[in-house]
Amino acid sequence: MKNSLLLRFGTVITILFILAVSGMVSSMIIAETAEGYAAAINQAGTLRMQSYRIASSLVHRTKFHDELATTRTRELVTEYNQRLFSHRIHDVLTKGPHKKVTESYEKVESQWRELMLPNLEDYLKLSASTSLSTNERRQLDISQRNYLSLVDNFVDDIHRFVEALEIDAEEINQQLRIIQIILLTLTFLVALISLYLTKTRVLNPLRDLLACANAARHGDFSIRSRYLSDDELGQLGQAFNVMAEDLSVIYADLENRVRKKTHDLEQSNRTLELLYSATKRLSDSTLSEDVLIAVIHDIEALLGVNNGTICLGQPGDQHAYRYASTRDADILSKEKPDNQCAICLGEGRSHTFKIAKSDTHAPVNVFSTPIRDKTQQYGVLLVEFPVTTQLEEWQERLLETVASHIALAINVAQQVTQSRKLSLMEERSVIARELHDSIAQSLSYLKIQVAKLEKSINDERDKKDILLVSAALRSALNGAYRQLRELLTTFRLRVTDADLGKLIRETVEEFENRSGIVIEYTNHIGNCQFTPNAEIHIIQIIREALSNVIRHANARRARVVLECNQTGRVNVSIEDDGIGINDESDMMQHYGLPIMKERAEWLGGTLTINEPAGGGTRIDLNFNITDASNSESKKMLIEQLKHG
């Protein structure tokens, strides 16, 4: 990338690194170059002192005639040679100092070799002799005077050499300062440039991007990044702008979808509300015109349609029965039958057609949907709406669903009616059988006894015979009266909200209190659920059996046991410790046993009677709960209702 921020900041860091390294390297080089100058300057400075010390030793010998001064002079000359040609000075000269330094040193060295040292050597040579000639003495004095006359100029040359060294050392330090200043200036400039780049190329774009991100976080996708340079943050800004544009489109689409989903949920909520209201109305109350009109009003309020009507009829019928309608009663009373019923009923499918209103003759659309439960159609549900509008698909589906609920309610109402008829016919059949086996037989017996009484009177028999017949009549009347009371008690029996076990316990306590017989009651029916008719049959069988125990068994104890297993198999046993019944064929014709057997058949079960090993009588009723609703006796009665 041409304008990459990484490249720019990498360049800045590289430049700073180069400047830092350059400063360190230059400092090392200059320090290396300046190394030894101080020692050389110090060494050169001692040459001046050494020159005067040599001159002092010469003067000291001449003035005090000190022989040891010659030795001292020789030592000083030797030391001077060592200092002049010392490595301290030569190390500096080998580093390539300024030309003036080299020239100054060469001049000092030349004067020492050519002027100063020869005079000193002549002086030391002559002064070493113990006896000097006049000429030698004069030559010694000349050498001394020559050195002393040259020493000041020689020292000035040394001073200039030292000054040249100092100037050269100062120039080296000045170079170091200049280089450091230049490097520091460049570093400062590079730092300023990097700060400027950081502010303009990093901080400002980041602030812009953060502002855009905060706006996007708060849902404002209209904001765009202004920084679009050809670098990483510029590309990030461009990417953010593209992302914001995409998010704006996506959020707009999501808002539309949420709006649509909200609308759909509102429709679903209204639909569920209508279905709940319709189902509650249809299930909580007996199906009637008022209930259906309330359902139609709910439909009109939700869908915004008008004049709902429910007509009962089959497809192809020319006339139908208007069961419920929200149309004005006056208009309905003035309407005349026409051939619109066939159009409304249609062919058993939902359809829309146009008719003219009977009051204004204005055209109106009518939507007709069949009121159908599976394959059975009971009629149609009709709603009116303006010709300028059309029902939406969900509205049509909702009307079809409501129509199916109405059909189900009609079906349930018919089943309830049929069930009531069935229960009534079932109980009538049982009552007729019980009347035949009890009161009818007693009346037949009374009829026979009356005939015998008449015959006895006509034959003028003995009063004793007439009294016997009269006693038999009285006994028969008492028996018939007792049987009548039993039947009345049976007919008054009602199945309340109490469970079957509690009802049977109350029956057992009733017979126990009436007879004084100890009756043990065991209930193991658990959570088995019985139909009301099944409960009545079970209670009646137990009552009839306990009545036989009281009247015929001559028992002291009895036991009633109810059992129901997890498969719904029910066993009801009534056992006593009485005298038992020996003749089973005769037994089945008396004691109300045929009625008990018939009730067992109504339950789809069997009734068995046997004598336990310890004596007495045991009656067992066995049936399955699921068979109690589909027994052959009940099926026959249903067929009779259908064909009767």
Give short descriptive properties of this protein.
644 residues; alpha+beta; Beta-Lactamase; 4 domains; five-stranded antiparallel beta sheet; five-stranded mixed beta sheet; 17 helices; 68% helix
Pick out the low-confidence regions. Answer: 584-590
**Span of the ends, CA to CA:** 100 Å
Order of helices and strands: HHHHHHHHEEHHEEEHHHEHEEHHEEH
- Please state the average pLDDT score: 78
Structure description:
The chain has 644 residues and is of the alpha+beta class. The protein folds into four domains: 5-206; 228-274; 275-404, GAF domain (Beta-Lactamase, 2-Layer Sandwich), CATH 3.30.450.40; 495-644, Heat Shock Protein 90, CATH 3.30.565. It is built from 17 helices and ten strands. The protein has helices at 5-34, 37-64, 68-84, 87-94, 99-127, 134-217, 232-284, 289-303, 329-334, 340-345, 393-458, 463-491, 500-515, 532-553, 584-587, 593-602, 632-643, and strands at 306-312, 321-325, 351-356, 363-373, 376-385, 518-524, 557-564, 569-576, 606-610, 617-624. The strands form two sheets. Strands 2-1-5-4-3 form a five-stranded antiparallel beta sheet. It is elongated and about 235 Å long.
